[in-house]
Amino acid sequence: MDNANIGAGPAQRPDLLRNPNLASGASAERWFDTQAFRMPAPFAFGNEGRNIVFEAGEANVDFSLLKNTAMGEKRSVEFRAELFNLLNHTNFVGAPGRLAFTPNFGRLFNAGPSRQMQLGLKFVF
Questions:
Q1: Is-above-0.70 flag for pTM?
Q2: Ordered DSSP codes for 83-117
């Protein structure tokens, strides 16, 4: 929609009615309050500023376990177990849909990796 009559694109901004950041209850389907925006008057720019919606921080716990076992003077075996995102917390990545008044406005579509585990065994001689 070309409400400001400047051509389609992200330079068209809506009017901001209130703080769009939700105090609680944010989900991938509704990351911020999309009702906090309205269409500006025809041939006018909205009053919304840049970078007004906050993304969540990343919650990540990595864990590693290592065991060295000597097999004589010159040889050893190393066992390693590594877990990434140990608590399997969902970390959304990328900005939510930012084009106002579209079906994807305020929705998140990408998440970071889930829990991953790797095991390793190394023989040193």
A1: no
A2: EESTT----B-SPPP-STTSTTTT----B----EE
